[in-house]
Amino acid sequence: MGTTSMRGRFAEVITDLLDSRPDVAVVLADIGVNQFSETGAIAHHPDRVVNVGIREQLMIGVAGGLALAGMRPFVHSYTPFLVQRPFEQIKLDLGHQGVGAVLVSIGGSYDAASEGRTHQAPGDVALIDTLPGWEIHVPGHPDEVELLLRHAASHDRSVYVRLADNTNAEPMPIVPGRFHTLRNGDSATIVAVGPTLDRVVEASRGLDVTVLYAATVRPFDRAAVAAAWSANFVVVEPYLEGTSAHEVAAAMGDRPHRLLSIGVPKAEHRHYGRPADHQAAHGLDAAGLRRRIVAFIGESRACSRHSSVL
Questions:
Q1: Domain containing residue 147: CATH number
Q2: pTM of structure
Q3: Which of 186, 144, 150 is nearest to 163 (CA)?
Q4: Cα separation of 136 and 149, whole Å?
């Protein structure tokens, strides 16, 4: 498998699972049907690739029924149609029933910027985080998508996998549920979530900072955060700003620290344009990240004896 987009890799991996696992099913609400037609999954497994039409609440209800029958359902749509519109069904048909499914979104915060606000959902991770027991993965590369999907298929818990159009240039050697340390520094610790990593690396070039990479944000790797304690802590997330602030506070305990949460602000950016335009407008491009990080740490502390590190 070698598709270079996250969504393409998702279709390949799930098609392979459908071929090898009789308990795997896919539930769609029109969106994504073409992907599974192209892989042949719909023709080969018409009883396990279910398209309910434009009925997102029913999509989750069907997934809950399949899970109650012992199946492992994967559910896919654009983020607002997968998480926000059928949230009550997620809460009841999965959570209250005590069964698991794998929700796989595309579109994220503003990947579908040209489609307008109906296709934007920066609050998705924060919303899922209100429910107990969910694993939440935010991969930054198609290879990480494959690893995390296969991990999700290996158990029966509820999982949310957040795909993105924007990817990092290279995959990281991730372990589900663990943060990966790229480098160590003294002035601050930065957690870069999923597809923000390349921009964080560029933004922090020459700065005396620790950089942690997170492709799994729930469970939050509190042990890694505690081990990388710094008086200055930064979390860069590709969704609603502050979503993981409470997790950082829990990890730090009573140790003093300052936290800078960088993400998509609550205020709606009421302009059409490319995802890169929204990224720059929110200060989530490399230049915007560097300005905010340096201002937070302090110019004199940002660069020190370790200023030659990447």
A1: 3.40.50.970
A2: 0.94
A3: 144
A4: 11
